[in-house]
């Protein structure tokens, strides 16, 4: 199959390659109930040494900069409790953690979750966290610019490989909320 975006040698519908996905991502694809068919989620094999944005774009297509999104885990604190949330923004922007995110999750203070918390809670590798397969009950804030894309490149749960996902599929994830202005700058 040909990848819907980018210049990738190997593209496979995610349901056909569950064995290369980490457990939580494979389970989410296996039990997919979104409005977009799971077969429209495409796994592309990528070189983990080329994961940094500039090198990645050099190898897989400079046009991907405007079609790539980062998924970051944010920890919001209020009183004695902590709420973990995922934020999905275009790679060329940054998450408005102390403005939009803090207000959306009802936190007094918000910051990026420590790496060991993000990886431990998601079961995914740092640098490959994806909004597909996150723990049940997590808020998933998706920037409107991401939700509007026909296809967006996101992590696969590992540093090796990426997922190409219709933006509307990300907007339809459990716990997802499309938010204007989540990504800034």
UniProtKB/TrEMBL annotation:
<dbReference type="InterPro" id="IPR007214">
    <property type="entry name" value="YbaK/aa-tRNA-synth-assoc-dom"/>
</dbReference>
<dbReference type="InterPro" id="IPR036754">
    <property type="entry name" value="YbaK/aa-tRNA-synt-asso_dom_sf"/>
</dbReference>
<dbReference type="Pfam" id="PF04073">
    <property type="entry name" value="tRNA_edit"/>
</dbReference>
<protein>
    <recommendedName>
        <fullName>YbaK/aminoacyl-tRNA synthetase-associated domain-containing protein</fullName>
    </recommendedName>
</protein>
<dbReference type="GO" id="GO:0002161">
    <property type="term" value="F:aminoacyl-tRNA deacylase activity"/>
</dbReference>
<feature type="domain" description="YbaK/aminoacyl-tRNA synthetase-associated">
    <location>
        <begin position="64"/>
        <end position="170"/>
    </location>
</feature>
């Amino acid at each position: 199959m040909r990848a819907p975006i980018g210049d990738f040698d190997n593209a496979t519908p995610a349901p056909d390659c569950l064995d290369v996905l980490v457990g939580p991502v494979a389970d989410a694809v296996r039990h997919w109930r979104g409005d977009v068919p799971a077969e429209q989620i495409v796994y592309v094999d990528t070189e983990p040494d080329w994961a940094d944005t500039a090198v990645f774009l050099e190898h897989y297509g400079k046009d991907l900069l405007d079609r790539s999104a980062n998924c970051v885990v944010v920890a919001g604190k209020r009183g004695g409790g902590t709420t973990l949330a995922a934020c999905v923004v275009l790679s060329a922007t940054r998450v408005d953690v102390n403005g939009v995110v803090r207000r959306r999750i009802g936190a007094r203070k918000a910051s990026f979750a420590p790496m060991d918390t993000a990886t431990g809670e998601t079961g995914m590798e740092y640098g490959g966290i994806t909004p597909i397969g996150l723990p049940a009950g997590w808020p998933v804030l998706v920037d409107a610019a991401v939700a509007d894309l026909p296809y967006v490149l996101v992590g696969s749960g590992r540093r090796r490989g990426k997922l190409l996902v219709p933006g509307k599929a990300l907007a339809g994830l459990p716990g997802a909320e499309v938010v204007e202005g989540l990504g800034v700058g």
